[in-house]
Amino acid sequence: MSKRVLGARSSVLLGLLAAWLSPTSVTAQAASPSSATATPATTVQPKPAVNRASPGSSASGDNVVKPSGSATPTASSPPALDWRPEPNQIETFPGAPPGTLEVLVLDAKAQPLPGIAVDLLQSRQSVADGDRSSAPRHFTTDSRGSVRVAGLSTQSENRYQLRLNAGGLTYGASTFVLDPLTGSRATLHAYPIVKSLDAALVAAQGFVFLEPKEESMTVEVLYNVFQLGPAVWIPLDVNVRLPLGAKAFNTRAMDEDLAVTSSDGLVRLVGAVTPGKHSVTFSFQLPLSGNESEALELGLLPNIAELKVAAALPKGASLEVAGYPETEPSSLESGQRVVVTGRSYEHDKAPPASLSLTVRGLPTPGPARWIATTAAAMLGFGALAYAVLRGRRGAAGELLSLRERARARVLQEAKAVEAAHQRGEIGPETHAEALERLMVALSRLDRAQ
Fold this sequence. Notes:
With about 450 residues, the protein is α+β, with helices and mostly antiparallel strands.
């Protein structure tokens, strides 16, 4: 993995990120990763439909891959601080018949690029037939930097996607449907490819959300990854480590160019980071030990500029994050109450490779863990007593006394379970399971003869 220390470029990255993030940024209202949604397909409109836009600066350095062609994107000197990448866009093209798509490819300075490889993918969404995708069609821009494709279906079930292809590395995905009344025109922007993090102006903004439950802790992570310069960064071997014992990893698509995968306890960043903002999210479960305090270590993406941590905790519990301010009460967009802390890494402060979190004051399992054992032991004792006393005179009276004592003990345990549930020491699932086992024990005692 590339070095995590920003070094001499730290103030440049953080300055650029701060300039293009909203003033509220990461220290604003708490947000759960689960509140974000994926962007649907774009419908061709008379006005451009923005695919993405965000901050910018330039990339320079080694490991630059240029698309083949007579005019290729090249790394340039750092642009002005007010530079932003031009968004890819889809618009109507009245000068062409329906089913016609004209694609124009421009560089970072809005100049046409001939000889650029463009892939067109088509998929069909049908309730009756399911989703079907066709093989990509490959084109190359002409001397005017354009490609013209005719005879495409304008039915609403058809979705199209354009991607730039730089030697097998594809990026700049734009998904859309065609206007059934006129032609369509797409404008894409090509950039040089960089594979080294040191050659890219990349910064990340992170959100971590914790929610302890009865037997495990749910952890959700959201990253906004910013490419601040006119280049496309291909992350190679960019991994973050999950806490020991993490299970039930899950992720969902939020971005057409960037994603995460997981294997062997690592989360890997895959895809392409074009100029602007990209988002990825994942979640996992961490089994709880049953102790009052739970600690975990979560790996972080490189070049973290800002990070916020929120937790939905039971009453009396607290969250500590090493190197972060004390938590403050807040709420999610859903209204759920949480505690929040966060910080940014500025100038010469190197972002950490991992995050250390401790949740204290968690309710312990209480009596629920040994209720089943107690009930089983009482039943075993009753059966043994019955076997021993069965043949003795007066044994019936002694057995009745043993059964009544066992019955009273089960009822006492049921009251203890209710009290633990009311105090918040056990959750609804444990509460229901414990009561069910105790009622079974009580039923068996009542049936004993």
